[in-house]
């Protein structure tokens, strides 16, 4: 998602590196993906793309849709979810 947002022009790779770099340097080795996610949410919020609350709500909707989807079936997130 980070790469796709960068390629769509939502932020530059140097902006991403400035957000992610300091976080990952101070993180425990097993926290890499959590730090990646936190940095992306912070960058989206700072850029006015999506606030942390919006990301959290969409995450919950996505997880609920995933739990309701049989294995091997594409997950569909509808407006009703």
How many helices? The count is 4
**Care to count the β-strands?**
0
Give the oligomer, counting copies of the same chain as homo and different chains as hetero: single chain
Sketch the topology as an H/E string, one letter per element.
HHHH
Q: Assess the beta-strand content as a share of residues.
A: under 5%
Quick one: biggest sheet?
none
Shape: globular
Average predicted confidence as pLDDT: 93
Distance linking N and C termini = 21 Å
- Computed over alpha carbons, the radius of gyration is 15 Å
Helix percentage range: 55-70%
User: Spans of 5+ residues with little confidence (pLDDT < 50)?
Assistant: none
- Judged by helices, strands and strand pairing, the structural class is mainly alpha
Give keywords.
mainly alpha
Question: How would you describe this structure to a colleague?
Answer:
The chain is mostly helical and 81 residues long. The protein has a domain at 2-50. Helix content is 62%, strand content 0%. It is built from four helices and no strands. The longest helix is centred in the last third of the chain and has 16 residues, at 52-67. The radius of gyration is 15 Å and the shape is globular. The model has no long low-confidence stretch (mean pLDDT 93).
């Amino acid at each position: 998602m980070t790469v796709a947002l960068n390629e769509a022009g939502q932020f530059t790779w140097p902006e991403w590196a400035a957000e992610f770099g300091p976080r990952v340097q101070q993180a425990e080795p097993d926290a890499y993906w959590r730090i990646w996610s936190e940095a992306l949410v912070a960058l989206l919020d700072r850029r006015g793309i999506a606030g942390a609350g919006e990301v959290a709500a969409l995450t919950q909707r996505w997880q609920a849709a995933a739990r309701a989807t049989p294995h091997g079936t594409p997950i569909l997130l509808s407006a009703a979810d």
